[in-house]
């Protein structure tokens, strides 16, 4: 199978960059959380990084199946943070961007009549919406009650 529409290739390449940038950000933020003594949060952030890495792996497979070489463009730098609240806000902002990106990719594929591409991006979209919901739940818990002991320690 080869890709005939350059726009689909562009969405896949950008998706790879977004996912790998999130892996980098979640891992960096997990290390920060660990340094702050927030073991539960660090574990959760590492899990999020793993989820994003799985997305990058699936995108890589899709690119290869379409006859393209996987590659990411320049990755966005990790968002600088000063505390756990700004860490959560940075991840919430990025997850919102990724959700909007995948919504655009699904719409693009639908307009082209690319059902396979639309289904592929729609699966990623559903998973990213779940990631966003988890980040928002942590953010809400943090902003409504501060960091609980369960977020700090195992």
TrEMBL record:
- The identity of this protein, by name, is ferroxidase
An MF annotation (GO) of this entry: ferric iron binding
Pfam families in the record, alphabetically?
Ferritin
Signal peptide: which range, if any? none
What are the EC numbers? 1.16.3.1
Q: Which UniProt keywords apply?
A: Heme, Iron, Iron storage, Metal-binding
| An annotated GO BP | intracellular iron ion homeostasis
Q: Which family does it belong to?
A: Belongs to the bacterioferritin family.
**Top-rank taxon:** Bacteria
Q: Does the keyword Metal-binding apply?
A: yes
**What chemistry does it catalyse, as a reaction equation?**
Fe(2+)(in) = Fe(2+)(out)
| One cellular component (GO) term of this entry | cytosol
UniProt xrefs under InterPro entries? Bacterioferritin, Ferritin-like, Ferritin-like_diiron, Ferritin-like_SF, Ferritin_DPS_dom
């Amino acid at each position: 199978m080869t890709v005939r529409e350059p726009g689909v290739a562009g969405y896949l390449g950008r998706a790879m960059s977004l996912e790998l940038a999130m892996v980098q950000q979640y891992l960096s933020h997990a290390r920060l959380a660990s340094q702050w003594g927030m073991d539960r949060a660090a574990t959760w952030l590492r899990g999020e990084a793993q989820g994003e890495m799985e997305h990058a792996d699936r995108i890589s497979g899709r690119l290869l199946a379409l006859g393209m070489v996987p590659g990411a463009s320049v990755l966005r730098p990790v968002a600088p943070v000063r505390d756990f609240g700004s860490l959560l806000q940075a991840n919430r902002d990025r997850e919102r961007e990724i959700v909007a990106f995948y919504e655009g990719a699904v719409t693009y594929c639908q307009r082209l009549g690319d059902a396979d591409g639309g289904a592929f991006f729609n699966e990623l979209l559903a998973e990213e919406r779940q990631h966003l919901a988890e980040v928002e739940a942590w953010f809400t818990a943090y902003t409504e009650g501060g960091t609980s002991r369960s977020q700090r320690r195992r």
